[in-house]
Specification:
Radius of gyration: 17 Å
Strand order of the largest sheet: 2-3-1-4
Helix content: 25-40%
Oligomer: single chain
Largest sheet: 4 strands, antiparallel
Low-confidence stretches: 108-112
Strand content: 25-35%
Length: about 110
C-alpha cells in the first residue's frame, strides 16, 4: 500500500481527495402509486446500472397517503457522472407513474 501511495503522490494525486470524490452520494425522492412501486424499482435499478450509476440504497415509506408511496434512492455518484444522474432524474419525472421527483445531495458529517 505504501508503494501505491508513493505512486499516487508522484502522479500528483491526493489520495484522500480522490477517495472522497469516489464516495460522493446523491439522493432522489419520488412519489408514485403503491401498486407501481415494484415495477418502478426494478426499472430504476436497471436504468441506473446501465448509466454507470450505483444505487446503494432504496428506502420505501408507505406512511403518507394511502394510495401513494414515497421512495428515497441513494446513489453513489462521482462528480463526473452527475450529468448521467440528472438525465435519470429527468426520465423519472417524465414517467407517467411517477407523481413527484425531488433531487438532492446526501450530506455526510464532516470530520473536525
Amino acid at each position: 500500500m505504501r508503494i501505491f501511495d508513493l505512486f499516487l503522490r508522484r502522479a500528483g494525486v491526493d489520495r484522500a481527495t480522490a477517495m472522497s470524490r469516489r464516495r460522493a452520494s446523491s439522493s432522489l425522492i419520488l412519489e408514485c402509486p403503491r401498486t407501481e412501486l415494484g415495477n418502478l424499482r426494478k426499472q430504476i435499478c436497471l436504468d441506473f446500472q446501465a448509466a454507470g450509476l450505483d444505487v446503494s440504497q432504496f428506502q420505501v415509506d408507505h406512511s403518507g397517503q394511502s394510495e401513494l408511496a414515497s421512495a428515497r434512492i441513494t446513489v453513489n455518484c462521482p462528480p463526473e457522472l452527475r450529468g448521467a444522474l440528472m438525465t435519470q432524474a429527468k426520465r423519472l419525472s417524465d414517467n407517467p407513474d411517477v407523481r413527484h421527483v425531488q433531487f438532492g445531495q446526501v450530506r455526510r458529517p464532516s470530520a473536525v
